Amino acid sequence: MYISDPDRYWDEVCELARQDARLDALLHTTICVTMAQGAQQPNVIPAHVSATISARVLPGETGDEILAYIQQHLTGGIQVRRVSGIDPVNADTPDSEEFRLVEQTTHDVYGDDVIVMPELMLFATDSRYYKDIARHIFLFSGYEQDDTWGPMHGVNERIPAATLPGSRNFFRRLMENYNA
Description:
The chain is α+β, with helices and mostly antiparallel strands. 31% of the residues lie in helices and 8% in strands. It has a two-stranded antiparallel ribbon. The longest helix has 16 residues, at 164-179. The two termini are 35 Å apart.
């Protein structure tokens, strides 16, 4: 229902996002201070302070836009600079022969009851390096994810070893289907 007409159900989607941090992160760029440095003692005013901000940029926005957004909220001569980062790859259309190939391969490996649909990924992949040479880019891992995974980029992050054969089988089958 929500997927077919997101504008019509925007208020409901936002209400769901208030209850689900992962869904909320899919709806906008996220910014988080991940490191901060200042004085070495609590009673010393530092001559210099620094902070590292990690941003997960929503497709359609750029790192430079996020940098400008942060800068406009700082006063007193505080300087901001972009240390690293690659702008997100825009999502590709599911209305293509290549997407149908991914869908068929998913059904071959994981069964016909699996629904294959586009979704934003909350993390970067190496696919961004192919954007200038590939006709289509689908951000797909092939892993079967469940509650045994640790939190992504959090404490005790892990990919259970039992999921690795499924991913290997998926990509092997994808190459076989592609060459068929």
